[in-house]
Each structure stands twice: as C-alpha cells, then as structure tokens.
Amino acid sequence: MPATRIPFDSESNGLDAAPDDAAPSPGDHLVFEAGRLACAACATEISEVISLGRITPLPGTAPAVLGLFHHRGELIVAIDAGRLLEPGPPDSPERRRASAGPSSRLLLIRQGKHVIGLMVDSVAGILHLGDAPASPEPPPAPSAGLCDGAVTHEGRTVLRLVVPSVLARIDTILGQRP
Description:
Elements lengths: L3 E3 L1 E2 L4 E2 L12 E7 L2 E6 L5 E4 L13 E7 L2 E7 H5 L7 H7 L5 E7 L2 E7 L1 E7 L18 E7 L2 E6 L1 H12 L4
Parallel strand pairs: 5-13, 8-10
Antiparallel strand pairs: 1-11, 2-3, 4-5, 4-11, 6-9, 7-8, 9-10, 12-13
C-alpha cells in the first residue's frame, strides 16, 4: 500500500485534514525533522505537539537532555531528538537551545505515569503508512535499535522510530530503570 500524505497546515500548526476530535489511526505517522534526519513516529504514541517554550537547564546531564519545562501543571523533561538520534561533538544544551528555531516543537510522549517532551526541529505533518513495510535499510549507527527501518517519501529517506525503544534509551540517559 503506498504512503498517503495528509496535509499539514503550518500556519495554524494543526492538521487541516482531520477534525479536532479525530483520533489518528494506527497507520498514521507524525513526520518530523531531528537534526539532519527525517523521522516518523506512530501518531497514536504522540499525545500532543506543542510550541517550544521556556526550558530550565539541568546541570550535569547528558547533552541530549535540554532541561525541564512546565506544561498543564506537570514538570516534564525535554530531550533533544537530534542529539538523541545522532549524537555529535559535545556542546552545551544552552547552545542547542539557542539554535532552536521558530519551527521547533516538543512532541509529548506519555507512557504510564511518565511524560517526555521530545524537541524536534520541525513537524512536517501526518503520513499514512498503513501496512506499508519499512525497508530493512540500516539506520545511522547512533539510531540503531531505535528504528525498525525506513520509508521513502518525496525522495527522502524517513526513519520509522520505535517509540518504546526511544523511551528506553531516554530512561537510560536519565539514569532511570523501568
């Protein structure tokens, strides 16, 4: 089954193809940019997409940890998706946050009582993959174990993230054990 793109309305930062109360189907994937990578995550595993607000740094944490932010009465850890998927030369979270642009977003991922904010450089929209198989193309080395393959969309390779694996990697980074 070919991938189907559901348009994304960048002006309102919302999906223009579905009513507000429509739930994503299991084949819907949220497509986003993280560093130099194009990625997709199952839309049913993303609880919200929010604008990047004030993040308070956490000293002494891994470079992928941006800090804490407050959202609807909760303190949530913000993780830089680009640094998580493609760790590079060391730099400070302050430098990374300074390079975050107006299109940067936080993807809220909830698993049980845990909530993580995954900062991405931009959100492209929803791509319906249905039962389309991912190619067995190996992801970049740092992303190994976080992806189940890739799909080609508009001539670009898009990595399909496995959200539970991403959360397990974040737990390791934070020093938490499930």
